[in-house]
Amino acid sequence: MLVNLEIPVEAPFTPEQRGWLNQFLQRELGGGGAVAAEVGYDKKRPFPSAILDNYNLNDEASGKETRHVALSLEGSGLEYEVGDALGVYPRNPPEMVEEILAALDLDGAAEVPLPDGGEGTLREALETAYDVRSLSAKFLAGWLERSGSEELRGLVEAEDQEGLGEYLWGRELIDLMLEHPVAFADGADFVSVLRKLQPRLYSIASSPKAHPGEVHLCVGVVRYESHGRKREGVCSTFLSDRGGDQKPGVFVHRNQAFRPPADEGTPLIMVGPGTGVAPFRAFLEERQATGATGRNWLFFGNPHAATDFLYEEELTALLKGGVLSRLDLAFSRDQEEKVYVQDRMIEQGAELWAWLEEGGVFCVCGDASRMAKDVDAALHKVVEVQGGMTAEGAAAYVKGLRKGKRYCRDVY
Questions:
Q1: Residue 42's CB: how many other CB atoms inside 10 A?
Q2: 156: Cα separation from own chain's centroid
Q3: Distances (CA, A) of 326 to 235, 267, 269, 316, 367
Q4: Which residues pair with 201 in a beta bridge?
Q5: How far apart are alpha carbons 410 and 272 in whole angstroms?
Q6: What is the tens place of the pLDDT at every residue in 74-101?
Q7: Which residues contact 100 (CB under 8 A, 6 or more apart)?
Q8: What is residue 9's three-state secondary structure?
Q9: Quick count: other Cβ atoms within 10 Å of Cβ 162?
Q10: Phi, psi angles (nearest 5°) of residue 222
Q11: Which of these, 45, 188, 202, lies nearest to 130 by C-alpha position?
C-alpha cells in the first residue's frame, strides 16, 4: 500500500496527536525513520517515547529513590552523544488537576487556549501544558491583585524577603488557591495567569553505541511533605509512577562542552556523586565500546554503601574488566565522621595530581549549590599542595585546565 502524505514541520499537533500520527504512518509505511524526518522531532515537537525499563537503583531500605529509566528512540530520528542531556515533558497528576478544578469550580471540558497556540480542554491543558505547581514572588504579586488578600499584601509589599521566602517554601498553587481564593470568569481567564509547563533536562546515562535505539536516565525521585500535604517532583514522579502509559515527549539537548576526551588515550577523572554518576556511566560505556586506551577514574558517593551504591554491579564489573582503572567511594553516613567525594580527592591528591600532569581531563557532574563548589575547592587544594604552588598559582593552573577544556562541569 502506497501512502503519500506530507506533514509540514510547523503542523500544530499536540504530542499525543503526533504520537498517534506517527504510529499510524509506521503501520502503513512499515518504518519510522522517514516519518521522523518529516515531523522533525525537537524541543517544540517532542518525540513520544515508550518507557522500556524502569526500576529503583536504591535498596528498599534506603531513604532515597533513584530510578533507572530506559526510553525508546526507535523511529524518532533523534541522535545523541555522550554528555548530552535529554529533555522530558512531564504531565501533572490527574488528581491534582481535579482538585484545582473543584477548588475553582471550573468546567474541565471547556475549551481554553494553549501556550503554544491552538486550543484544548481545560483539563487536558492543566495536565499537559501549564505549570500548576510553582509559586514565585512575581506570581504572588499577580495573585494579590485578584484576591485583595491583606495577608498576601503584607508578604508581597513588605521588605522582609525572608518572610516571603518562608511562605513560598513548600507551598504550591493549590495552597494559594485554598488560602487566598480567587474567582475566575472561566477556564481561559484562569490559564491566562499560568506559565507554560517546562521540560526537565536529565544528563543522559547511556552510550548510543552500547544501547542502539535507546536512551537511559538516572532520575532522583522527589517526594516530601510540607504544610500537611504530600509533595512530589513533577517530572521525577511522572517518569517513576505514571510515564509508562503516557509515552513522555522527549528531545535531545546538546552539550558540546561536556564530552569525554577526543583523544582516546587521554586519562579521564570523573567526579559524580548521587545521580551525578549518570553521564559517567555513559562515558565509560563509550570508552569501552570504542576501545579507548586511556585510564578512567571515578569518584562516587552517596549516604550508604548497602542501600545507595548506584549501578554497583556495572561499576564493579567495569573495574574488574579494566575499563575502570580506579573507583574511589565516599559513603557519607557509613562512619561517624561524614566523608564526601571531595575528601577522597584530597586523600588521593598525589595520584590525582599525577593524572592531571599526564594530561588528564577532570569532569564533575551533580549539585551546583554545594557539591560542585566543594569539589572545585578540593581541586584547587590538590593542585596547591601537590604542585607546590601558592593559592594564586593553583587558581591559574585550574584556570588553564578550563581554558584547555580539561576541566568540564555538568552541574544543576
A1: 14
A2: 31
A3: 34, 11, 9, 10, 23
A4: 87
A5: 10
A6: 999 999 999 999 999 999 999 999 999 9
A7: 126, 132, 173, 174, 177
A8: coil
A9: 9
A10: -100, 120
A11: 188
- Evaluate if residue 262 carries a pLDDT over 80: yes
Q: Name the E strands within 31-75.
A: 47-48, 51-56, 66-72
* Owner of C-alpha cell 591528591: 349
Is 364:372 a contact under the CB 8 Å cutoff?
Answer: yes
Tell me, what DSSP letter sits at residue 93? -
- Domains of the chain by range and CATH? 15-90+199-253 (2.40.30.10), 94-191 (1.20.990.10), 268-411 (3.40.50.80)
pLDDT for position 320:
98
- In 3-state terms, what secondary structure has residue 120? strand
Rg of the chain in Å (alpha carbons): 24
Element spanning 377, H or E: helix 371-386
Which SS3 state, helix, strand or coil, does residue 54 take? strand
Q: What pLDDT, on a 0 to 100 scale, did the predictor assign at position 293? A: 97
What pLDDT is attached to residue 40?
Answer: 84
Total-model pTM: 0.89
Q: Where are the beta strands (DSSP E) in 57-128?
A: 66-72, 85-89, 111-113, 119-121
3-state DSSP assignment of residue 113: strand
Could you identify the residue written with the cell 553505541?
209
- Which three three-digit cell numbers place residue 193? 495567569
SS3 for 204?
A: strand
Q: Is pLDDT at 346 greater than 50 in this prediction?
A: yes
Cβ-based neighbour number of residue 196 at 10 Å = 11
Q: 351 or 36: which carries more pLDDT confidence?
A: 351
Is the model's pLDDT at 155 over the cut of 50? Answer: yes
Q: What count of Cα atoms within 13 Å lies in the side-chain half-sphere of residue 216? A: 27
Name the pLDDT band for 174 (thresholds 50, 70, 90): very high
105 has pLDDT over 70: yes
Retrieve residue 23's grid coordinates.
504510529
Distance between CA atoms of 33 and 35, rounded to whole angstroms?
A: 5
Per-residue confidence at 243, pLDDT binned at 50, 70, 90? confident
- Cell numbers 505514571 correspond to 242
What are the angstrom distances between the C-alpha of 66 and each of 242, 338, 399? 15, 21, 34
Q: Could you count the other beta carbons within 10 Å of the beta carbon of residue 8?
A: 9
